[in-house]
Amino acid sequence: MNIPEAQQLAGRILDEVRKVIDGKPEATRTALTVMLAEGHLLLEDVPGVGKTMLAKALSRSVGGTISRIQFTPDLLPSDVTGVSIYDQRQGSFVFQRGAVFANVVIGDEINRASPKTQSALLEAMAERQVTVDGVTHELPNPFLVVATQNPVEMDGTYALPEAQRDRFLARISLGYPDTAAELEMLRHRGTSDPLDQVRPVVSVAQLQAMIAAARDVFIAPPVEQYLVDLVHATRDHPDLRLGASPRATLHLVRAVKAKALLDGRDFVLPDDVAALAVPVLAHRMLPIRQSLSLSGLGEMDFLEVVVQGLLNRVPVPTA
To answer: Domain limits at 5?
Structure first.
């Protein structure tokens, strides 16, 4: 699949998602970028701003299987991955697949489940497989987790482990809609559910071809060096006790290639790296507590400021 064809199909997906999400074009483009980069997306914000709606709209616009997991404190790891059940007729154990066996898995309020249950997703998100009773089961291809979570300061939440946060390619926050978008929502959602209007516009085979096209986008050595320098700068930052991982470097490369494809280009620009550095890097880092306290900011706001500062400091290639 060439770049113009992939861009046209991407436009169809965005048009479907816009039927549900009003006034958030950058959030919807970033969500699609993550999908084309074969990553997983974390949507974090206060309740009621459309996190689950965005996840549902994105998944319904693409053909393939969809499952939803409502993360609650009593959810068990076997509810996610599956369990082996003894079949008396066959005289053997039979594996019953869990909800994770789908092309798109919507994890609703992922940080309300216990850390033990959250860890059931680690292997699936990193290796696209699950191991139950010593037997490995491959997950469908493509495989995407779109998880929503409330801010950790809210009641009934658990902080995601660093290992799991690192498996999400990007984290975005929707925020409240502006006045015009909220008025539009009132006028069009009083009598019908906009999700009913969303239909699959891209098949699984087409999505796989789009992912392959994004993977083949060219990134020049100077831009690669700029990207690596940016990630390395997080590891030496005086206000951070944990910088971005090598996985973050790989995720950022895949993300900027997918963004270039969405923009109709077969090559990556330094501006692509700057545009995606915050959503790809910030959620993986941990601040020094004293620096965070002195800043007067929330943790994620502080980390986003740190990444923006690095973007202003790391030299940008000019040729």
So the answer is: 1-192+202-216
Helix, strand, coil fractions of the chain, as percent rounded to 5:
50, 15, 35
What was the pLDDT predicted at 154?
61
Same domain, 206 and 230: no
Q: Which of 113, 114, 98, 127 is nearest to 40 (CA)?
A: 127
First to last CA, the chain: 29
Count the domains in the chain: 2
- pLDDT tens digits along 172-201: 887 777 777 777 777 766 666 777 788 889
pTM: 0.88
Q: Tell whether 197 is covered by a domain.
A: no
* Sign, CA torsion 180/23/264/308: positive
- Closest Cα to residue 27, out of 4, 58, 5? 58
| Phi/psi at 41 (5° precision) | -115, 135
3-state DSSP assignment of residue 49: coil
Which CATH number does the domain housing residue 275 bear? Answer: 1.10.8.80
For tokens 């495989």, the residue is 143
pLDDT in tens, 203-235: 888 999 999 999 999 999 999 999 999 999 999
How open is the CA angle 239-242-243, to the nearest 5 degrees? 85
Distance CA 218, CA 236 (A): 29
Whether 147 maps to a domain, the answer reads yes
